């Protein structure tokens, strides 16, 4: 008996996968990459689930964008017609996925191949792993606890003095408890705090529920330029420059923590600071980061009130409200909240990631502002990267 597919549409992914994919089609169609899966949760053995995970990924590789989905994408004005026409022909290839065990004996999943043809694997693979895990180990879990917690969050927003100013983007696809629960979460937010919900990163639910799909770039985009750019020291500037050429003022939120916020600030000069609408935080202390970015804008003679700071690192509603209280009079703040919305149901969610680890045969890395998030097995390259970007050892 065939197992029911977890992923039923290629739109069931984060928007930034499509926006990055368009850049890859137009600028780097021949780039070759490697992605590596990692489960950061200690004591969890996913090896017994490998066969079911493989079967789910095989079913993912049978999907194509439907005619109605293509019509929807054609109406997203910054997606260009040639890219959408390419998506009409697109299909993921299971041959790009490799399974094994790492040196610790844990489940290893790698995706290797053309960047253009593998970029859409990451988000559904993570969603598949999380849902297969939940199904096997928490099959009888009652979602009433999740519903209770979700209501408490929206009640907190309504009661808070600044609650009406809290702008939320739902970012929870990759680590959701399951697909049905994510839909319930987005529906509840859209019904209960409609004025607070500015959109979702999930393109499928954005289309189904008539809300705005949101997203710009992920770490892999800037990481790839460590191999694609003219010089390593100029990789971030090259990535930002290509982005502005592709989108001409749209999708103007830059990610700041691929090689740490201090190195980003050195590259984010007046030219980029004026071109981009704002920046996104995804590691390190959010308060320290915000103060650094606000001070940087002020030093460049740019009013921080004209810019947007997007916070998206492990947020919950109380922390978002605390950040809002601290900075709402100084700049525009928006919050991308993921796991705490779509996998806060009374059990501990997995901490899983799938990061780009090589591009065009060369190692690439993210040096996070949070300890423990760096993924790179090439210590020599990591040391070189830190030296080039003047990153001090913690």
Automatic annotation (TrEMBL):
Annotated SUPFAM superfamilies: Nicotinate/Quinolinate PRTase C-terminal domain-like (SSF51690), Nicotinate/Quinolinate PRTase N-terminal domain-like (SSF54675)
Keywords: Glycosyltransferase, Ligase, Phosphoprotein, Pyridine nucleotide biosynthesis, Transferase
Domain Nicotinate/nicotinamide phosphoribosyltransferase: 167-392
CDD domains xref list: PncB_like
Gene Ontology MF term list: glycosyltransferase activity; nicotinate phosphoribosyltransferase activity
UniProt EC number: 6.3.4.21
Family according to the record: Belongs to the NAPRTase family.
Protein name: Nicotinate phosphoribosyltransferase
Organism of this sequence: Aliikangiella marina
């Amino acid at each position: 008996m065939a197992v029911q597919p977890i992923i039923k549409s290629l739109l069931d992914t984060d928007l930034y996968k499509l926006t990055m994919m368009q850049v890859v089609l137009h600028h780097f169609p021949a780039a070759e990459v490697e992605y590596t899966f990692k489960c950061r949760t200690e004591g969890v053995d996913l090896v017994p689930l490998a066969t079911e995970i493989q079967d789910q990924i095989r079913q993912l590789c049978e999907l194509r964008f439907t005619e109605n989905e293509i019509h929807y994408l054609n109406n997203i004005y910054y997606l260009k017609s040639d890219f959408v026409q390419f998506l009409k022909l697109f299909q993921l290839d299971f041959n790009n996925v490799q399974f094994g065990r790492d040196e610790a004996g844990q489940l290893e999943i790698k995706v290797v191949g053309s960047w253009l043809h593998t970029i859409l694997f990451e988000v559904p693979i993570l969603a598949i792993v999380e849902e297969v895990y939940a199904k096997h180990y928490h099959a009888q879990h009652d979602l009433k606890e999740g519903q209770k917690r979700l209501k408490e969050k929206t009640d907190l927003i309504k009661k808070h003095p600044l609650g009406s100013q809290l702008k939320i983007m739902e970012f929870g696809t990759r680590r959701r408890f399951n697909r049905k629960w994510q839909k319930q979460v987005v529906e509840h937010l859209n019904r209960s705090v409609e004025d607070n919900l500015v959109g979702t990163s999930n393109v499928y639910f954005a289309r189904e529920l008539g809300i705005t799909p949101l997203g710009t770039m992920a770490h892999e985009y800037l990481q790839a330029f460590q191999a694609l750019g003219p010089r390593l020291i100029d990789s971030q500037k090259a990535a930002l420059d290509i982005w502005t050429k592709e989108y001409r003022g749209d999708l103007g939120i830059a990610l700041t923590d691929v090689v740490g916020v201090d190195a980003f600030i050195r590259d984010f000069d007046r030219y980029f600071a004026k071109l981009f609408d704002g920046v996104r935080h995804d590691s390190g202390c959010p308060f320290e980061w915000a103060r650094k970015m606000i001070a940087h804008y002020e030093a460049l003679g740019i009013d921080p009130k004209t810019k947007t700071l997007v916070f998206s690192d492990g947020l919950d509603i109380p922390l978002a409200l605390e950040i809002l209280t601290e900075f709402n009079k100084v700049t525009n703040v928006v919050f991308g909240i993921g796991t705490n919305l779509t996998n806060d149901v009374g059990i501990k969610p997995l901490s899983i990631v799938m990061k780009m680890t090589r591009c065009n045969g060369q190692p690439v890395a993210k040096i996070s502002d949070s300890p423990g998030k760096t993924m790179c097995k090439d210590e020599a390259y990591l040391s070189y990267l830190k030296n080039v970007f003047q990153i001090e050892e913690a």
